[in-house]
Q: What sequence folds into this?
């Protein structure tokens, strides 16, 4: 047990393993939003944002992933939500951002179907307690990352290296999504969507082998999650890897949504597999573009490209779209005069908002945009190296310093 009864998560366990986090750190304190949320909400209010997307820690509500709610956990989110509303900021609640209670992982985690049922119980608790005050709900953040990084290649918690045998974890997360949509609606939630990480797929060459590799990677990264949720079907290329009886769950998975969230950072280049590769493709660099400190190529046009392709693929099944994450990292420092000069981030945001505007002009129904992120924070396996925030955090003193990008975004919103 941790602060106010929070249970242990898979990330607590993962951070304890030597060599898993680049700087040897953990997310135990990070930017200490748990204790400093009034200060952080004041920064949001001054910034002028209309909504704040936050994630609930499942182990804070159900320490072992089952049973009654921890009242101290609910109390924290009560205070957070009420403070947001008092500041005129709409709460946008994500139920899950990869922090599975360790006890559930010990019982099989997302590889077993029962975890989806446990997630539905958890969603019902949150819906019953907060549906009267939360404007928008997102059951799971980026199940593709949990599946591929957590269960496929072991780069993230829980650190499994199953390659394509990880795909049942994708199906069980999709099922959890659908069950959570039903539970939230039953509790009175009026706007429920999702937040999937997406990348346009760029085959390296024009050969049939490169094109086929791109088809597999596109099915794996994008359509394994978007298709069942929006179309009620899985890409045929993925059928062989899904658990038996998967089709019986599609009606639940495809519960109608009020919005669809797209998290965008980069395209992914791909080539035909090298001899002896355990995968049916090779991931290759996206050449010719600058990189962030998180090694992401900066390609604003990729956002427009994916949004148009999503619209074309889904047609009338696509609800209004929100960009639920977009941002870039840098090695930001506070100068002697107290400023953080992150001109590169201003250019990044301006260029991506330009791509978003072009997608709107091309007929994509986009309703909102969330920057990742307000604060510098613990960035998973890369620790505290990459800084994504509009606000610089000194992790030792826990001081907040708005960056130049914060001031720029403040002016953009006000105009």
A:
């Amino acid at each position: 047990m941790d602060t106010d009864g929070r249970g242990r998560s898979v990330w607590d366990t993962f951070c304890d393993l030597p060599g898993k986090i680049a700087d040897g750190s953990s997310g135990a304190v990070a930017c200490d939003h748990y204790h400093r949320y009034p200060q952080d909400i004041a920064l949001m209010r001054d910034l002028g944002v209309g909504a704040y997307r936050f994630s609930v820690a499942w182990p804070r509500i159900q320490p072992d992933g089952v049973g009654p709610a921890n009242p101290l956990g609910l109390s924290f989110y009560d205070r957070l939500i009420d403070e947001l509303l008092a500041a005129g900021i709409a709460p946008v609640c994500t139920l899950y951002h990869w922090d599975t209670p360790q006890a559930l992982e010990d019982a099989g985690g997302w590889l077993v179907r029962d975890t989806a049922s446990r997630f539905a119980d958890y969603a019902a608790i949150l819906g019953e307690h907060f549906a009267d005050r939360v404007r928008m709900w997102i059951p799971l953040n980026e199940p593709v990352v949990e599946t591929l990084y957590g269960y496929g290649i072991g780069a993230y918690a829980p650190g499994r290296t199953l390659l394509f045998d990880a795909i049942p974890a994708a199906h069980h997360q999709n099922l959890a999504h659908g069950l959570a949509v039903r539970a939230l609606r039953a509790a009175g939630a009026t706007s429920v969507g999702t937040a999937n990480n997406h990348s346009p797929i760029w085959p390296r060459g024009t050969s049939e082998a490169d094109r086929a590799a791109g088809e597999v990677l596109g099915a794996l990264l994008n359509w394994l999650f978007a298709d069942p949720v929006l179309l009620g079907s899985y890409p045929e290329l993925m059928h062989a890897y899904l658990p038996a009886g998967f089709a019986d769950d599609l009606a639940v998975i495809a519960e109608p949504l009020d919005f669809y969230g797209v998290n965008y950072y980069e395209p992914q280049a791909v080539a035909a597999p090298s001899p002896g590769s355990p995968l049916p493709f090779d991931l290759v660099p996206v050449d010719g573009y600058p990189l962030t400190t998180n090694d992401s190529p900066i390609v604003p046009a990729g956002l427009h490209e994916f949004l148009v392709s999503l619209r074309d693929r889904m047609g009338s099944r696509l609800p209004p779209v929100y960009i639920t994450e977009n941002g870039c990292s840098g090695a930001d420092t506070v100068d002697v005069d107290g400023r953080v000069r992150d001109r590169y981030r201003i250019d990044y945001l301006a260029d991506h908002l330009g791509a978003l505007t072009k997608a709107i002009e091309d007929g994509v129904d986009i309703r909102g945009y969330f920057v990742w992120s307000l604060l510098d924070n613990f960035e998973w396996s890369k620790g505290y190296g990459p800084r994504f925030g509009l606000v610089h955090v000194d992790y030792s003193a826990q001081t907040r310093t708005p960056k130049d990008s914060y001031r720029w975004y403040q002016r953009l919103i006000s105009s």
Remarks:
- The domain at 3-414 is CATH 3.20.20.80 (TIM Barrel).
